[in-house]
Amino acid sequence: DEVTLQIMTAGLSSGHYQPLTMDDAFSEKAYKLYVERLDPGKKFLLQPDINELAAYKQNIDDQITKGSFEFFEKSFSLINQRIKECEGYYKEILAKPFDFEQNEEFETDPDKLAYAATAAELKETWRKYLKYQVLIRLSETMDAQEKAKEKNDTTVKAKTFAEMEEDARKKVLKSNDELFKRYARFDRGDRIAVYLNTICNLYDPHTEFYPPADKENFDITMSGKLEGIGAQLQEKDGQIRVSNIVPGSASWRQGQLKAGDVILKVGQGAQEPVDVTDMKLDDVVKMVRGKKGTEVRLTVKKVDGSITVISIIRDIVVLEDTYAQSAVIETGRKIGYIRLASFYNDFKGGRNCSDDVKKELLKLKEEGVQGIILDLRDNGGGSLQDVINMAGFFIAKGPVVQVKQRDFPPVAYSDKDPAVIYDGPLMVMVNENSASASEIMAAAIQDYKRGVVIGSNTTFGKGTVQQFMDLDEYVLPQFDTLKPLGQVKLTIQKFYRINGGTTQLKGVVPDITLPDILRYLEYGEKELEYPMPYDGIKAANYDRWNKKIDLGKLAKNSQARVNKNEFFKFIEQMAMELKADRDNSMVPLQLSKYRGENKKRKENSKKFEELQK
């Protein structure tokens, strides 16, 4: 562990784009972030435990320098002790029925909770937490029974309320039995990995420590060789979130699972689903993976707070579904539309997105379109070279993006071909899931004043580049028996627009914004902890497009249409309600209130889907 820590911190210091100083301020951040990850739900540690750990708050940096794990060892001992003590709580609490007529609430946001001062207070936290878990399952069973009654479905056995409540408690008991078995398997090596990853994450959220097994999972995800559902997952505060949907995957084709969804349970076919709260990320990934043609059922919490079950048949990624596609939209005028799900490029001589988009552009020109829409919504990025080539279809030669590495001046990556494939009116559509290469493309079109960027408040805001550092390569011969140590993915470069600003953190702000369900929430890079800052460098030399666009007039006309549009009015209403829900994270534990709120969320989700058709 000492060898891993020393090689890792040396690599971060010499290789990271913006290295940090190991001082007391660093130590305090490391302490805060690690304690949050040690007990993300505040269900185990007591305030006296936190007071004991706080003694190390300003000397973690010194311990790292010495290769000491004293703070870690203390935390490891404390969390294991408290987990054993709490194991008896849930069995005792779930042995008796809950009173769901009692008017009480449960705080679902741990950041708003104080640590319990005593064991009695902690037991009360567990009582409310378990009651909430039972309430969710009870409500689901009641919904299913009511639906069966409406359809006269006699295959669903009618149960009394007492029977449904008892069944729900049994399911929660089984789920917590599994949870505590997972805690028992969560050994010192697992906790060490969390500690080392915490140190990496202080540099930025994309700088991460990968133990050997986790790196193997990352490689499989990136290569797409293993069959599954094609959803990239990340763990945050004990929850498993969908960070990205792989274009062409089973999830992408099914359409219901979205980035930002929180996975609560995973079920295999008709089997009872397993609660994945506080489960290790790689264990969840193993559950989601499986053979082509098999079913996985995900119970997810959507961004609007509604809980739904999504059934997905596992499959391989079908790249053909992700290739650039075009259509002509007749609106009194002919408008060309190109959908690009990712900036794909088969570097072994296969297809690439810039060639495909070029073909679609030429096809639309032959159709005589009077304008073109390039849709980059939910496009998570890809090949930088294809962005440069593609930008060149709409501009004469010139810089498209600037890339800066630590201690080196920025380098401008340019389109060198003076030919312009399409010189007519152009619109680029983006949303909060348009990231990386998509942001570079949208920014270039905006900076050249070549077209209009339209979409949600801002794009994702990821303007950095990472590469892997294999720790084994830096091990001295006498420590060869310790291999493999793992790898570190570290940030080495930053993207800058040709106007000098970076796409990092702020993303690309569209020229015209449209109502979006997430518009009042922190989303994307801004939501992550310790993101790299926004900054600027000198602008590149470039000539703006020679045809002027009256953005003020376009924005005014767009707003007038939005104000009259029922769909956008409803989106605005939902966005405000979602913000209010996020601000008030208390949930009612009274059955009638809970079901009433859940019913309203489901009705809104259904209305949203219908309006989208």
Summarize this structure briefly:
The chain has 613 residues and is α+β, with helices and mostly antiparallel strands. It is 41% helix and 17% strand. The chain folds into 4 domains: 20-201, no CATH class; 225-313, Pdz3 Domain (Roll), CATH 2.30.42.10; 319-465 and 487-559, 2-enoyl-CoA Hydratase, Chain A, domain 1 (Alpha-Beta Complex); 568-612.
Key structural traits:
613 residues; alpha+beta; Pdz3 Domain; 2-enoyl-CoA Hydratase, Chain A, domain 1; 4 domains; 6-stranded antiparallel beta sheet; 17 helices; 41% helix
Account of the protein in words:
With 613 residues, the protein is an alpha+beta fold. The protein has four domains: 20-201, no CATH class; 225-313, Pdz3 Domain (Roll), CATH 2.30.42; 319-465 and 487-559, 2-enoyl-CoA Hydratase, Chain A, domain 1, CATH 3.90.226; 568-612. Helices cover 41% and strands 17% of the residues. The protein has 17 helices and 19 strands. Strands 3, 4, 5, 6, 7 and 8 form a six-stranded antiparallel sheet that branches. Strands 9-10-11-14-15-18 form a six-stranded mixed sheet. Strands 2, 12, 13, 16 and 17 form a five-stranded antiparallel sheet that branches. Strand 3 (231-236) and strand 4 form a beta hairpin. Helix 5 (70-93) packs antiparallel against helix 7 (161-185), helix 6 crosses helix 7 and helix 16 (566-583) packs antiparallel against helix 17. The chain is globular. The chain starts with a helix and ends with a helix. Residues 219-226 have low confidence and may be disordered.
